[in-house]
């Protein structure tokens, strides 16, 4: 276990390196921070921190920089979450409150996170598997063609075309719509298959083919892979950190293009509380030089989606964690009120 004094030295090194982008020396530390000890003592503490792998010497200069292990200890033991200012909170609420639909909410959230943190922002659409049905609409487009519109409690809207095996009229369609909604509205998507499996049996023999076709389309909507959607923004922010990536920025960009990689990253975030993955804690090799800060969002205790940012390991962790948490809270409120 590190002593409190060495933890303070580590905190000072992280703060200075994040702020200056330059390796930190003992002389600079004693000048900028009230550590209450001599430069010689600070040098001894830095030597101990280096021996234990919390800091490293990038080249022959006297300065040191934090390692992934050092950042991890900083986040776990030292970094509080920096609260946003009142003007920042008002700006977030005003910006997100102006959204007109779910796509707009997600788009605005991505732009907001990227601007607040100056990192790459990633927002997952509310997952259908964690959503409940608000309404199922059936619209007659032609005697044998129906549009099915599925609306979730989070404001997500899915549309599918249904080609019916026989002509269907407005009255029959209205009856199907009413019976379908009476079974599924307010229920979790995962419960819907069981709720509608015998629906066709309550209809006249001649209508059962159409009912089964509509129900099958509804169930397909619930399980299609397209349900896990992401929006990403602020990728250009990475160009500001070119020197933070030891080899090239290209592997990072390639990893960010893979939706399955990003979904897995966000999937590791807890439903509540901010999750931080630092450097080599990220399983994907292309992201070994980055940190991921993520959190779940939703209107209740369970998150319906995740959001977060990706940036270099040399990031303002308290500020980034505060921004991610605050934005998630506002998004959850907006979905609850939608």
Short description:
The chain has 338 residues and is an alpha+beta fold. 44% of the residues lie in helices and 17% in strands.
Describe the structure.
This protein has helices at residues 4-20, 26-32, 39-51, 68-78, 86-97, 102-117, 170-184, 192-196, 208-223, 250-256, 259-267, 317-337, and strands at 55-56, 65-66, 120-124, 133-142, 145-152, 157-163, 230-233, 275-278, 290-297, 305-312. By secondary structure, it is an alpha+beta fold. The chain has a 5-stranded antiparallel beta sheet with strand order 7-3-10-9-8, with helices on both faces. A 3-stranded antiparallel beta sheet has the order 4-5-6. The chain has a two-stranded antiparallel sheet with strand order 1-2. Helix 1 (4-20) packs across helix 3 (39-51), helix 5 (86-97) runs antiparallel to helix 6 and helix 6 (102-117) runs antiparallel to helix 12. The longest helix is centred in the C-terminal third of the chain and has 21 residues, at 317-337. The chain is elongated and about 90 Å long. The two termini are 49 Å apart. The relative contact order is 0.13. The mean pLDDT is 86.
The helix/strand order is: HHHEEHHHEEEEHHHEHHEEEH
Going by helix content, strand content and strand pairing, the class is alpha+beta
Please mark out the parts with pLDDT under 50 across 5 or more consecutive residues, or reply none. none
- Could you tell me the radius of gyration in angstroms? 26 Å
The main sheet orders its strands as 7-3-10-9-8
Shape: elongated
The mean pLDDT is 86
Number of strands: 10
Distance between the termini: 49 Å
Binned strand content: 15-25%
- Count helical runs: 12
Share of helical residues: 40-55%
């Amino acid at each position: 276990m590190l002593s409190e004094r060495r933890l303070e030295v580590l905190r000072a090194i992280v703060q200075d390196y994040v702020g200056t982008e330059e390796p930190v020396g003992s002389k600079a530390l004693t000048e900028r921070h009230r550590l209450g000890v001599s430069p010689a003592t600070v040098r001894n503490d830095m030597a101990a921190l280096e021996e234990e792998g919390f800091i490293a010497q990038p080249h022959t200069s006297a300065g040191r920089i934090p390692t992934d292990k050092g950042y991890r200890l900083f986040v776990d033991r030292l970094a509080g979450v920096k609260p946003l200012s009142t003007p920042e909170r008002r700006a977030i609420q005003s910006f997100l409150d102006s959204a007109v639909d779910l796509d707009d909410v997600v788009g605005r959230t991505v732009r907001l996170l990227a601007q607040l943190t100056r990192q790459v922002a990633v927002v997952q659409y509310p997952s259908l598997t964690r959503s409940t049905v608000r309404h199922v609409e059936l619209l007659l487009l032609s005697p044998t063609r129906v549009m099915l519109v599925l609306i979730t409690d989070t404001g997500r809207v899915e549309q599918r075309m249904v080609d019916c095996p026989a002509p269907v009229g407005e009255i029959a369609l209205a009856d199907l719509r009413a019976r379908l909604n009476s079974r599924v509205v307010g229920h979790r998507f995962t419960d819907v298959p069981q709720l509608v499996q015998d629906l066709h049996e309550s209809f006249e023999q001649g209508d059962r083919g159409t009912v089964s076709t509509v129900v099958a389309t509804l169930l397909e909507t619930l399980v299609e892979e397209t349900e896990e959607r992401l929006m990403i923004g602020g990728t250009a922010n990475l160009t500001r950190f070119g020197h933070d990536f030891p080899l090239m920025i290209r592997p990072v960009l390639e990893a960010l293009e893979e939706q399955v990689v990003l979904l897995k990253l966000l999937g590791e975030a807890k439903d509540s509380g901010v999750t931080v993955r630092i450097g080599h804690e990220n399983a994907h090799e292309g992201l070994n030089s980055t940190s991921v800060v993520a959190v779940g969002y939703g209107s209740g205790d369970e998150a319906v989606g995740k959001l977060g940012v990706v940036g270099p390991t040399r990031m303002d962790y308290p500020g980034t964690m505060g921004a991610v948490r605050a934005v998630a809270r506002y998004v959850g409120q907006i979905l609850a009120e939608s």
